Amino acid sequence: MSNAAKTTTANAKPVVTRIAPSPTGDMHIGTARTALFSWLYARARGGKFLLRIEDTDRARSTPEATQGILDGMAWLGLDYDGEAVSQFEQAARHAEVAQQMLAAGTAYKCFATQDEIEAFREQARANKTSTLYQSPWRDADESTYPDAPYVIRMKAPRDGATVIRDQVQGDVTIKNDQIDDMIVLRSDGTPTYMLAVVVDDHDMGVTHVIRGDDHLANSARQMMVYDAMGWDLPVYAHIPLIFGPDGKKMSKRHGATGVKEYQAMGYPAQGMRNYLARLGWSHGDDEFFSDAQAMEWFDLDGINKAPARFDTKKLENICGQHLAVMEDAQIMSEIDAYLFASAQPALTPAQKSRLNAALYCLKGSAKTYPQLIEKARFALNQRPVDVDEKAQKHLGAVSNGILEELTPHLQSASWNRDALEAAVGRVMDAQDIGFGKVAGPLRAALAGRAQTPSVLDMMFVLGQEETLARISDAVQE
């Protein structure tokens, strides 16, 4: 069956996508975007989205990194079907497939030593010919096999070309004389990544492989395993990498690159999903959209071929728009998670109650959770309120007189915003002063800051008893 025919067959199956990160460090934001694309594609089509932990690098894989992947997926809201699969635990299955290919004659035992391979390459460099290793054991008679360690290599095609039919990059042609007889089983019996990833994708029923375009060249080699085993090819979609503002591959020099770093910086997950979806994929000119819209609109043909540039200002703008429309309960839940992720103390029940009451006047002007919490300091602070230097300038004999005159109006006011505004208005009229002359000392008394939410909103959220107590504290200092 031709590769094109196999791809057609794969398209007829229920969609199954996967994300397969390696637990050798923090989950990269690029991996998160790939996971998001795979999740959107599967969920929109009633398919499955799977998670595989590619932990075959035992020296570098850590339980902490694995947990970081699971935590990152949970924070982003990318639910996956079934349990996470460990690639390392499938090693016996990978080796079984290598032996099957060996028995079928599509792979062979290679007894070449490292010294012999290096000598071949040195000679090739001297002759200015290809350094791809041409093993003398490819067609050797079994009777000539020595009693020595060996690897199992695939028999790569020597002539013609391999065409990768990619949904993002288009048809990519690689000449077969550029593909080596790759090792699929090492001399110690352990499988290589190139074998393991194909066997796992096949066994997990993956129909669509969506991954970074740094894996594009690997596809030609991995297709050899599919062909050798008579397995249907998946649909490939290799997405461009994420670049920093300077047009270079995103790395630590650009700032945060790990998913947990963005959670610890307080970006709302809903906003992060929106921004990552828009990073390298487009639906007309739409910038701000919901998960439901993303699922409805997302398709592989909307992915750009050119690398996307990460823009923190755009991320913050999108996050701010999401915070403004998010349900209060969701915001409170994510604030708890943010405080934990950033190793900050949890809020007390009383602080949670006040913060929840204050969200209506805060969430429309914040872009991240740290910004929201900073604006909510008036609700989170305990008496006596610490007044900073700028706010202290609004307190004094004159302002104390204004606050003292305001106090009885507040004591008799119905505690709603209109009544509070009327109480402040009566003092303004009596003193023949503008709103700022009342608001300045009120900000200092209630929040200890010169920049705060509306004083009317602060009084409403704090309640009558707490508002009057804070004003009394300020007047008596």
Automatic annotation (TrEMBL):
Its EC number is 6.1.1.17. GO terms for cellular component: cytosol. Keywords: Aminoacyl-tRNA synthetase, ATP-binding, Cytoplasm, Ligase, Nucleotide-binding, Protein biosynthesis. The keyword Phosphoprotein does not apply. PROSITE patterns: AA_TRNA_LIGASE_I (PS00178). ATP binds at K252. Pfam families: Anticodon_2, tRNA-synt_1c. Its main location: cytoplasm. It is found in: Cytoplasm. A motif ('KMSKS' region) lies at residues 249-253. It catalyses: tRNA(Glu) + L-glutamate + ATP = L-glutamyl-tRNA(Glu) + AMP + diphosphate. Gene3D superfamilies: 1.10.10.350, HUPs. It comes from the Bacteria. A motif ('HIGH' region) lies at residues 21-31. GO terms for molecular function: ATP binding; glutamate-tRNA ligase activity; tRNA binding; zinc ion binding. Catalyzes the attachment of glutamate to tRNA(Glu) in a two-step reaction: glutamate is first activated by ATP to form Glu-AMP and then transferred to the acceptor end of tRNA(Glu). Belongs to the class-I aminoacyl-tRNA synthetase family. Glutamate--tRNA ligase type 1 subfamily. Monomer. This is Glutamate--tRNA ligase. It comes from Pacificibacter marinus. The gene is gltX_1.
